[in-house]
Amino acid sequence: MTLQIEISGQACGARVTGLDLAGELTPQLVQEIRRAWLGHKVLAFPGQRLDDDALERFTIAMGGFGEDPFFAPIEGRKNIAAILREENETSPLFAENWHSDWSFLARPPAGTCLLAIDIPPTGGDTLFANQAAAFAALPDDRKDQLRQLTAIHSAKLAYAPEGTYGEKDAGRSMAIRPDPSARNTFLHPLVKPHPETGEECLFSTLGYIVGIEGMEVTEAFALLSDLAEWQSRDEFVYRHRWEPEMLVMWDNRAVLHKATGGYEGHRRELHRTTIAAWAG
Ligand code: OGA
Ligand code: MN
After folding, report:
1. Which of 94, 136, 205, 266 would you label with 194, given CA atoms 20 to 30 Å apart?
2. Would you say the pTM of this structure is higher than 0.90?
């Protein structure tokens, strides 16, 4: 099988064709896909007819299932969640801010897979921002300054009972399960060398960071807000347009991502799996 890889021409992302992911995932194919994934950071596989079994097989082949702390899985599966918005839903959009999935865990997931189930005719694009490029483009003294910093990550702003998706969040169709454990914190360097490529990447941003070690909160937020603007500049962004029968996988160590709207009156559903941290 020869993979065809068509790069997006934007800051990251590529479309991969010439393969059938419902068929056998040979070690050679897996290696080729993983190599392309590390290079392009976001891969889209159009024209794949995959069911939940095939999505699970693919995720296992790419590194195994990671933990999904605040989602209830879909019925009958332990490791698939639904990213869902009903056509008449009025709750704020899910994940409409830049983040790296579950960055607040001790061992954040390597990647995430999303399989198109129900794609609206327009809108609902997912944006990705290349954090290796964002770091590389900084002036040297700024790089040195950021390399010294350790961020305090927490899910509390999103998933604690008082958070965005907590008790006040009404009328949401997604099976989100807020929990007091979202207040836990975990430290990660703000600049993290990618464990597989060695590229230095800016790791996560405002939504899941509650401070910087040894820094006043106001100073930390000024720095993080400033940095967040830089991290999501147009030149680092790839806009992903969904198609029916498309699978996407991205590298949480190398990109930030966010959802977008623009599909009012339409249903949007994707099935989601988490790829475990790389064991080395
Ligand atoms: C996610 C996510 C964005 C989207 O599934 O982790 O952030 O566009 N999704 O649905
Ligand atoms: Mn996400």
Report:
1. 94
2. yes
